[in-house]
Amino acid sequence: MTAPKRRFRPATELVHGGTMRSQFAETSEAMFLTQGFVYPDAEAAEARFKGEDPGFVYSRYANPTVAMFEERMCLLEGAEAARGLASGMAAVNAALMSDLKAGDHVVASRALFGSCQYIVADLLPRFGVASTLVDGTDLDAWRSAVRPETRAFFLESPSNPTLELINIAAVAEIARAAGARLVVDNVFATPLFQKPLELGAHTVVYSATKHIDGQGRCLGGVVLSDEDWIEGKLAPFLKHTGPSMSPFNAWVLLKSLETLQVRVERQAASAARIADAIASHPAVLRLYYPGRDDHPQAELARRQMTGGSTMLAVEVAGGKAGAFAVSAALEVVRISNNLGDAKSLVTHPATTTHQRLSDEERAALGIGDGLLRLSVGLEDPEDLVEDLVAALDRARPAEMRAAS
User: Fold this and answer.
1) Diameter of the chain by CA atoms?
2) 270, 311, 357, 381: which could join 361 in a potential S-S bond, CB 3.0 to 4.6 Å?
3) Can you spell out the DSSP letters for 2-26?
4) Mean pLDDT value of segment 250-259
């Protein structure tokens, strides 16, 4: 009997986990940039298609480089199985669509990324799947929304862009009692700072485009869950609908995972430094950062997360004009709707990531015209602090400058 593989700490698994070496014994993971695979004879091909031989068939189904990425993510997340996909939104869509049918019902938190809300509120109902959006912080709202046909719960925590936290363990308990599966988008927390599966979630999704790549190079997504669900529900859906991850992107992401912990810990430390430095600035009306005691769910953040996130949100004086003025005055931080990058990036959610929402919907989510979302990169934190403070100084209204 083969002894179980020793479990290592995250930094070690991120460098070595899941590696499959070819006959050439390469140090870096091999990139199998191939569409298909050959068989020694027709009998072997038949066995492969029947599932009697576990080898590879076609890269739309599975690929050795993608499989290495999936295994490494499982080791990091503590999941039984995973599937890599072409993008983060492909992961969200597949995690929900593969498990639902006409007549089912989904309950989701209202604080969602714009494209996630589109899938839940617009796309699923077109296929006969009803949905209800709730205040994710209100546990009674989750309970009240449950119907006999409820089959899935979906949430982000921390949410995009205001970093609202939801009690994952409590919502998972409600979902389990209702016979529903809880899907958690964990992209803002990263697998280093929050473990949804350990908190009771059934499925975790990531946009690997964000922190997992972390250098603005390629798209990717991943869904992680128990092996029965992955093989029985998700794998057939992916096989026949085709949102497969490119082997090249999987190889890039494998290289990125080697530095994930180093990058994210540095970025989160810088984010905390920035949050403390600008929280009391006269041009800052409100700041959202899970690592601070003034966060609305600070106590939950301490229980549920082991780090404060690389992200923060800040509402500045002057509404849209003030937010645009701050963005324009920045020299180091660049304007982009991406996040988790080595470069610090700022975006104005009301006109970018959440522009499709109505004014009333954005107001309910706390997305005001003056809100900016900041993704903190790997630059020197003092340069970032100086850049942001200078931009806030230059952008605040003249009467505010005169009063100071």
Assistant:
1) 84
2) 357
3) PPPPPP--HHHHHHHTT----TT--
4) 98
10-257 is a CATH 3.40.640.10 domain: yes
Whether the CB-CB separation of 283 and 400 falls below 8 Å is answered with yes
What is the 8-class DSSP label of residue 197?
Answer: T
- 31 closest CA partner among 77, 6, 72, 63: 63
- Find the DSSP H helices in 88-221: 88-97, 114-117, 124-126, 139-145, 168-178, 190-193
Which pair of structure tokens corresponds to residue 180? 């529903």
pLDDT reported for residue 404: 52
User: Residue 286 corresponds to which tokens in the numbers above?
Assistant: 């409100």
Give domain limits for the chain: 10-257, 261-403
pLDDT of residue 7: 79
Q: With respect to CATH, is domain 261-403 assigned 3.90.1150.10?
A: yes
**Residue 404: partners with Cβ closer than 8 Å, 6 or more residues away:** 282
Q: Is the pLDDT confidence value at 403 over 60?
A: no
The number of beta carbons lying within 10 Å of the beta carbon of residue 31 is 17
pLDDT in tens, 194-221: 999 999 999 999 999 999 999 999 999 9
Q: Is the dihedral of CA 91, 94, 96, 99 positive or negative?
A: negative
User: Is the CB of residue 64 less than 8 Å from the CB of residue 22?
Assistant: no
User: Are domains 10-257 and 261-403 of this chain identical in fold?
Assistant: no
Mean pLDDT value across residues 302-308:
96
CB atoms within 10 A of CB 87: 19
> What's residue 331's pLDDT?
97
Residue of 19, 20, 4, 13 lying closest to 76 (CA atoms): 13
Quick one: which H or E segment has residue 223?
A: strand 221-225
List the single range of 1-10, 24-33, 98-107 with lowest mean pLDDT.
Answer: 1-10
